[in-house]
Amino acid sequence: MTRALPAAAPGQADLLQQALVHFDQSEPLSARELATTVAEGDDDALRAQALALLVRCHLVLDEHVEVLALARDALDLCWRIGDRASEAIVHATVARSLLFTCDPVSAMEEIMTAIEVAEASGDLTARMLSTGTAGTIYYYLEQYHHCIEFCERAAEMARILGDEITNGAMIDTMACANMCLAEEARAEGDEDRAQAISGIAQDQSREAITIARRRGHRRHEVIALGNLAESLSFSGRTDEALELLSGWQLDPARESQSIITHLLDTHGSVCLASGRYDEAIGHLRAAMAAAESKNSKMVSAEHLADAYERNGDLRGALDTYKLFHALSKEVASEAAKRSGSIAVVRMETAQAKAAAEEERARVTALQHANQELLRQSLEDPLTGLANRRHLDEVMAAGLAGHAIILVDVDHFKRVNDEYSHLVGDRVLRLLAGLLRSACRAEDTVVRFGGEEFAVLLSGSDLANAMATAERLRSEVAAHFWGEVVPDLTVTVSIGLALGDESIDPAVVLGHADERLYAAKRAGRNRVHGPTETP
Q1: What is the CA radius of gyration of the chain?
Q2: Pairing mode, if any, of strands 403-409 and 444-449?
Q3: Which of 180, 267, 387, 477 would suit a FRET pair with 219, their CA atoms being 20 to 30 Å apart?
Q4: Which of 61, 60, 34, 39 is nearest to 49 (CA)?
């Protein structure tokens, strides 16, 4: 699984790409080494992605306190630079860590945050990882239908991205969920449904094996193989299951201790279910010896105690159960200590998040304030139209192919003197509305100053510009101004110039102004354009 990287120093980007490849191939130590180098660089965009990957490496290495501590730094950077995709990936990783440290409620809260942030980011990789993590959490919460639903979504995203490794992992997780549903069906006495669901799980595990083998992903292949063996054993096909397990050649030089333990424990469990107790004991003892953690050793000890008991070796069962009990206490004690450390880091992370959100809100408020100031600087407060400054900015791009119309209210001083400035202001607002409604969306209507307005007609020749100007004049004259005060009439004079008359917008505007005053001298309530004589 890889993400598109931003343009940066090729060396750093290449290192991060290599780190992602190592991680996808279940080589977290190599991935961590490369990602650490990138995280110590000076490119914030790459550093954020490298820190997100380092958090994932700590998770795979079962270093949960480190996951939470580094996640705090990663999120701080992501919030600062606005990298929502990396932020979502960190949240999803933290959710897994919280789940594995026995805090499912916080894990669910965290994954919902991850999904929300991933959706907002629009990054398909972040969405895939967050959705897939949700599927895993639902699996451990024994909500298997939800697990399958989320894993199906993640698998589809993986297929779109061409990410076969994640696709295969999601398919195998669905196989595990289906096996749990099969076991539930058997417990309810519905053997036909149990066998049908088990068959679906077997097909999914086979598909996962094929994908892992094609991609050379040995870890995923052996996990899917173990799951297939368990589902075959569930269906009464123990010989096939054992043949499948026996056919896998363990290679200590290539297999991690966790994979070796997993395969040996699965082999022992299948033998145990089929009544081959001596073989089960041999595999489970080997699993305990190979266990890379107290937790793995504890799981195999529980299975081994069961095997001894079924084989009639009560002394062996008792001794192994005592070991299981001692390991359980140690695991619980370590988990409690770790939970205390995690709680402190979680609190610090929450405080950092609150501070980041406060800063983000402050920046957003400033941006809105700046946008409002910009809007106000380009808008006439009385009419809501654009102002002269806005027109100057538009004209600076050139007027070729455009036309400019200047509109002035006839005898406007008389309106103010006879009726008041409040009436005059209302006239100007109504006139602004008439001009705006009579023009196209691509035209620019501005209050030029006082009782004068300007209309920049986009893509207009002389005939169209003159027709528009005449229409504006006639609509103003025909409007019922008596709604403002009885017997009030309002007319306008208009001057028009074409943008092609000069390469200098100021010259074009000057021509329109000259023609406006020519229209006023000629008796007002008329249009003068390039063909008119002043």
Answers
A1: 37
A2: unpaired
A3: 180
A4: 39
| DSSP H helical ranges for 82-123 | 84-100, 104-121
> SS3 for 292?
coil
Q: What's the sign of the alpha-carbon dihedral 111, 117, 120, 124?
A: negative
Q: In what order do the strands lie in the sheet containing 527-528?
A: 444-449, 452-457, 403-409, 492-498, 527-528
Least confident of 101-105, 223-227, 375-379, 441-445: 375-379
Return the SS3 of 406: strand
218-231 mean pLDDT: 89
Cβ contacts of 501-506, under 8 Å, gap ≥ 24: 501/530, 503/398, 503/400, 505/395, 505/396, 505/398, 505/399
What domains appear along the chain, each with residue ranges and CATH number?
249-330 (1.25.40.10), 388-528 (3.30.70.270)
End-to-end Cα distance, the chain: 74
Site of tokens 């501590």: 69
Q: How far apart are CA 142 and CA 463, in angstroms?
A: 75
Q: How far apart are CA 304 and CA 300, in angstroms?
A: 6
d(CA 144, CA 82): 35
Which residues make Cβ contacts (< 8 Å) with residue 240, sequence separation at least 6?
Answer: 232
Tokens linked to 127: 């969405």
Q: If we measure between CA atoms, which residue out of 409, 371, 390, 422 comes closest to residue 525?
A: 409
Per DSSP, the three-state class of 88 is helix
Q: How far is CA 251 from the centre of its chain?
A: 40
Predicted confidence (pLDDT) at residue 171 exceeds the cutoff of 90:
yes
- Rounded to the nearest 10 degrees, the angle between the axes of helix 44-60 and helix 84-100 is 20
Distance CA 166, CA 164 (A): 6
How many Cβ atoms from other residues are within 10 Å of residue 287's Cβ? 26
Of the candidates 254, 164, 156, the one whose C-alpha atom is nearest the C-alpha of residue 215 is 164
Residue % of the chain over a pLDDT of 70:
88
Task: Please enumerate in sequence order all residues whose Cβ is within 8 A of that of 127, keeping only pairs 6 or more positions apart, or say none.
Answer: 88, 115, 118, 119, 121, 157
Structural contact between residues 1 and 129, judged by C-beta atoms closer than 8 angstroms:
yes
- How far apart CA 117 and CA 126 sit, in angstroms, is 9
